[in-house]
Amino acid sequence: SSSFVLLRRSAVERVLPFLGSMPEAFWWDVSIRAMQHGLRVWEVPIHHHARAAGTTQVFRIGQLPFVAWRQVRGLLAIRFEAGR
Questions:
Q1: Number of C-alpha atoms within 13 angstroms, CB side, residue 37?
Q2: Cα separation, 65 vs 50, whole angstroms
Q3: pLDDT tens track for 43-60
Q4: Is the dihedral of CA 61, 63, 68, 71 positive or negative?
Q5: Which candidate, 29, 37, 28, 32, places its Cα nearest to that of 10?
Q6: How far apart are CA 48 and CA 36, in angstroms?
Q7: Which residues, other chains included, contact 67 with Cβ-Cβ below 8 Å and sequence gap of 6+?
Q8: Mind listing the pLDDT tens digit for each residue in 12-48?
Q9: Residue 82: count of CB within 10 angstroms of its CB
C-alpha cells in the first residue's frame, strides 16, 4: 500500500464516484475500482528502508480489530456490488 500513484484525470473521474468502501485502505480501493472499470493498473515495486527511530503512529494495537473489520466489510461491499 503506497501513496505513490500516478493517475490520469480521466481515470480519477471514472472511479471517484465509487470510492469510500475502504477508508483505511484508500489506495487499495482505488486500485480495485480501477480494475473493475477496465483500467490498467501497474505495480512498481519499491524498497522500504528500516525505520530509523520510533514506532508507527498510523494505527495503535487497540484500533486494529476495528480497522480489520472495516476492511473486511469494505471488501465484501465491493464484491457484492460487482455481483449486481
A1: 17
A2: 25
A3: 777 887 888 887 777 777
A4: negative
A5: 37
A6: 29
A7: 24, 59
A8: 899 888 888 888 888 888 888 888 889 988 877 788 7
A9: 9
Report pLDDT for 20: 83
Please give the grid coordinates belonging to residue 53. Answer: 527511530
CA within 13 Å, CB half, 30: 19
- Report the distance separating Cα 34 and Cα 43, nearest Å: 13
Greatest extent of the chain over all pairs of C-alpha atoms, in Å: 47
Q: Which three cell numbers stand for residue 42?
A: 501497474
CA distances from 23 to 8, 35, 39, 43, 51 (A): 22, 18, 21, 21, 25
Q: Are 39 and 15 in contact (CB under 8 A)?
A: yes
